[in-house]
Amino acid sequence: MAVDGKQDGKKDGKPQAPRGMRMRCRLYAKATFTGFRRGQRIQYPNVALLNIEGTENRQDASWYVGKRCAFIYHGKTKKRLPGTTKPTTKRIVWGKVSRPHGKGGAVRARFTKNLNPAWMGYRVRIMLYPCNNL
After folding, report:
1. Whole-structure pTM value
2. Are the beta carbons of 82 and 94 closer than 8 angstroms?
3. Angle at the Cα of 82 (from 79 to 83), degrees rounded to 5?
4. Backbone phi, then psi, for 98, in 5-degree steps?
5. In terms of Cα–Cα distance, which of 61, 74, 60 is closest to 123?
6. CB burial class (10 A; 0-12, 13-18, 19+) of residue 100?
7. pLDDT tens digits, residue range 78-100?
8. Which pLDDT score, from 0 to 100, does residue 81 have?
9. Could you give the domains of the chain?
10. How far is CA 92 from CA 81, 98, 126, in A?
11. What's the pLDDT score for residue 90?
């Protein structure tokens, strides 16, 4: 026991986790690329539809409007991404959630490059920032 009543090596009596055992926090929501916005005869490949895990209605989906989204895939050759020093095979297509789609919690998103139709069913990350709608 220390003089001030606290144990040595602990802050406020709470044990600290070792350096490699700390909790990880995820700063993105998981979503699935389900297809493109479409009508009966026309498909709009510049607007992707995303189903976000945990959203079940339009009010839940409207919270994600304005958030950035990223589709991460692997290329064949190594290239250097902006802001990195080592080349990698990962590529990122950035986009932005534009509005809710329907009543089931899906959203519409526009990406810098149109997503490949072969990527339907793949995972998309919706970043929980910028957060200005609290």
Report:
1. 0.79
2. no
3. 120
4. -100, -40
5. 74
6. buried
7. 999 888 899 999 999 999 999 99
8. 82
9. 25-127 (2.40.10.190)
10. 9, 19, 13
11. 92
pLDDT digit string, tens, across residues 30-83: 999 999 999 999 999 999 999 999 999 999 999 999 999 999 999 999 999 888
Contact between residue 125 and residue 70 where contact means Cβ atoms under 8 Å apart: yes
Contacts of 83 (CB under 8 A, 6+ apart): none
Half-sphere exposure of 76 (CA within 13 A, CB side): 0
Q: Name every residue whose Cβ is closer than 8 Å to that of residue 76 and which is 6 or more positions away in sequence.
A: 89
Output the six-digit token pair for 19: 């350096």
Distance CA 112, CA 91 (A): 13
Question: Considering Cα of 125, then 129, then 132, then 133, what sign does the dihedral take?
Answer: positive
Q: Which helix (H) or strand (E) holds 125?
A: strand 123-127
> Is there a contact between 54 and 28 (Cβ–Cβ < 8 Å)?
no
Q: What digits encode the pLDDT tens for the residues 109-122?
A: 999 999 999 999 99
